[in-house]
Amino acid sequence: MTGKRRDNFRIRISEKKLRLIIRCFAVDCSATQTGKIVHANRNTANRYYEFFRDLIVKDGLKERYELNIVNGIEADESYFGPRRVRGKRGRGASKKVIVFGLLKRHGRVYTEVIPTAKQIEILPIIRKTVATGADIYTDGWRSYDALAVYGYNHKKVKHHTDEFVRGDTHINGIESFWSWTKHRLNKFHGVHKRHFKRYLLESEWRFNHRDDMEKLLKLLIKQGR
């Protein structure tokens, strides 16, 4: 938004209602729910939501330049879209969006949309994001087999043999993030592929700032006015 357009956008509601909209957005109320709570038109709530998302996307992209994960990493890929047909991993993905994720245990998550779950797509992301020598936890997907060659301490569980936890070796954290993100996106009754990256980055940002989201959003709004 330009400065003039943002000012016009801002003065439509009171400061009290704006704070309430921010709180509703932080707890992930829909625009319809927020409109009822604030006693405002749904379209008004939705315009503010889109403004907030613009700020979040900008902030989330900026954070990626500062990313340098040094240890305790869970890596996994997931498929978003129509239910995957039964069969070997990845089958039916032609109608899906494939997302690769890295989760720092007890820390932040990083996601990236990839065209395929092959090694040629996954390894460059890991190498630019994770420090050499770090512990990386994965399942038994063959795309991760070369991690040790590149100096990582690769620990894996073999899901295909029903092994999901072995001591501290598991990927429960990143799998929980996938489950939470899919549940969240389902509330939108389907997200078009054209907008998927935007909503994915918002989910990533929400997860990474789950303890200070409302405070940080208010700061971004103040800086963005």
Q: How are the secondary structure elements laid out?
A:
Blueprint: H1 3-10, H2 15-26, H3 31-38, H4 42-64, E1 73-80, E2 97-104, E3 109-114, H5 119-129, E4 135-138, E5 153-156, H6 172-186, H7 193-208, H8 213-224
Parallel strand pairs: 1-4, 4-5
Antiparallel strand pairs: 1-2, 2-3
Helix pairs in contact: 2-3, 2-8, 3-4, 4-7, 4-8, 6-7
Protein name: ISXO2-like transposase domain-containing protein
Domain ISXO2-like transposase: 69-208
What's the quick description here?
With 225 residues, the protein is α/β, with parallel strands linked by helices. The chain has two domains: 3-65 and 209-224; 73-185, Nucleotidyltransferase, domain 5.
CATH fold name of the largest domain, please?
Answer: Nucleotidyltransferase, domain 5
Please name the CATH architecture of the largest domain: 2-Layer Sandwich
Shape: elongated
DSSP helix count?
A: 8
- H and E string: HHHHEEEHEEHHH
Protein name: ISXO2-like transposase domain-containing protein
Pfam family, one: DDE_Tnp_IS1595
Domain ISXO2-like transposase: 69-208
Structure, described:
- The protein is an alpha/beta fold and 225 residues long.
- It folds into 2 domains: 79 residues; 113 residues, 2-Layer Sandwich (Nucleotidyltransferase, domain 5), CATH 3.30.420.
- 47% of the residues lie in helices and 13% in strands.
- The chain starts with a helix and ends with a helix.
